[in-house]
Specification:
By secondary structure, this protein is an alpha+beta fold. The protein has helices at 58-61, 80-92, 109-120, 139-157, and strands at residues 2-9, 14-17, 28-33, 41-47, 71-77, 105-107, 161-167. The strands form 2 sheets. It has a 4-stranded antiparallel beta sheet. Strands 2-1-3 form a 3-stranded antiparallel beta sheet, with no helix packed on it. Residues 1-36 have low confidence and may be disordered.
């Protein structure tokens, strides 16, 4: 869905008209794209950067010597139970954000081993949220998650820092 929004400026007046659009008018037009299927997007990245802490290091991501070298190694869409597991880990590590959203979380080999064990035991916490959707809890989803754990272990062995981040 695309909404065209025209903003009209004058010396003492500002108003918006979302229904009127004319190329000939000297107004500034802003196009706002609304995501039709909003929801939980989850990412795992690897980077050569070494952060000063394991949580809430978003300000450090772009401050590395070589710039932002992160590479996405996995993407999940609306895997609510994984989000709940990561949020619990975030809080264990001292995270204090009220909403675990856009709060990067470094994953160690020990964290990944715990995740793998919880996946195999089907022990991820049942998690719900307005934008979260629902985890499928299928064998296929578990195998995909375990493949991520394997890829993340390999990245750490190669000298990368691995971290999880989400946005909803």
């Amino acid at each position: 869905m695309v909404i065209l929004l025209e903003i009209h400026f004058s010396s003492d007046l500002l108003f918006c008209n979302p229904f009127f659009l004319s190329v000939a008018n000297p107004y500034i037009c802003i196009v706002i794209k609304l995501k039709k299927d909003m929801g939980l997007d989850q990412f795992a990245f690897k980077t050569k950067a070494k952060f000063t802490k394991e949580i809430d290091f978003e300000s450090e991501i772009d401050q590395t010597e070589d710039g932002d070298d992160r590479v996405q190694i996995h993407y999940w869409r609306k895997h609510a139970n994984l989000q709940g597991w990561m949020e619990s880990l975030y809080k264990e590590k001292g995270g204090s954000s009220e909403q675990f959203n856009c709060s990067p979380l470094q994953l160690t080999k020990e964290d990944l081993d715990r995740l793998a064990a919880d996946l195999i035991d089907q022990d991820l916490p049942e998690t719900q949220g307005f934008f979260f959707g629902q985890s499928e809890n299928t064998e296929e989803e578990m195998q995909e998650d375990l493949a991520f754990v394997k890829d993340a272990h390999r990245a750490i062995d190669e000298g990368y820092t691995v971290y999880y981040d989400s946005w909803w």
